[in-house]
Amino acid sequence: MTAFLFHRARGHRLLLSAALLAVLLTASVLAALAAFAGSVGDAGLRHALQSRDAAAASLIITSEDSSADRAAAERGAQRGAERAFDGLPVTLRPFERSAPYSLPRALQPPAARQGEPDLTMLAVVDRSRVRLVSGAWPSGPAAGPVVEVALPEAAARALKLTAGPRVLTLASRLGGPAVQIRVAGVYRVHDRNDPYWQLDELRGRSVRTDVFTTYGPLLADPRAFASERIAKSGPSWLATADFSALQADRIDTLRSSARQSQKVLSAEPGLKGGVVAKTSLPEVLDRMERALLVARATLLIVSLQLVLLAGYALLLVARLLSTERETETRVLLARGASRGRIAALSALEALFLALPAVIGAPLLAGPLTALLAGQGLPARIGLRVDTAPTASVWLVGALVALACAS
Q: What is the pTM of this model?
């Protein structure tokens, strides 16, 4: 039967080649669209969460207990953040601040000394987020009462301070003991738009003026900051998740976990003294999910249009082939072939037409997906998509090829 089938196909090779090409192109393009919808959707979601929406997707954890065990509180924050991000890898960056202090009146312009004092606070931050401009980083606790600090560049310029031996006295705004400081160095924030600076009341800008003018934070060595001479506020952390393996089908569970962040962190033993958790991740995921639905609906419309065009082309080829084979079919019937036998031959011929598309369409989908992703907005933002054929792409290719053959 196979030899007869090939002999029969040789007589209509042009029409059958056209049918084979139509099936292969249709299956390849639809498989590529399926791969594009999945891979670009996932890549776009990850890109947004790691760039444009990185700040909103982070989790801000603030302990309200200034006397809590720092190590236990940090372990609790780490565990709670991992649960809030549905088990994704989490990086925790600490930020410790003091209670507010007032700067010496001598640093104010004479006309402002009768009004409110200027304020500041001491802090311990992630040193990778700042750069030393002049002087040196503060050292650990010395034998005397003076605490070395690093002053932000904008504040140093406004207050006309430089690194040197001059000692300043800061008065506690909460009625505690005063703190003596010496400016050891001047630093600059690497990037004020870094999500980390959400932990800072001044948002990394170093100076803020409202009712009071506030400068800071003044960076201290962690060992000096831990001493009893500095009045402390509760520690804070910025928790950021590694979204590099996130897929769109995990949005629901991640959103549900993020909405439970306050409850989860409040249940941690190290944070029993009170904790506040803030994140906009659920709202970001809602917005991203709507965008994905719109994008997939658009691709579905394009796919349906392609299916209609391919169906029309295949019907035309089938009609031409049927017309050319009308005489051949009559001869086979006259020689005793049953209509069922002829139908089986046609079905086997259709399967041979579908087989190259079943194998080739998923393999061609990868290069086509890379070609689509290399155009327009995905190319401009440097979106990297996975072009390896997945099980769903193989399934789409096989179903489309068999549907075309039938």
A: 0.77
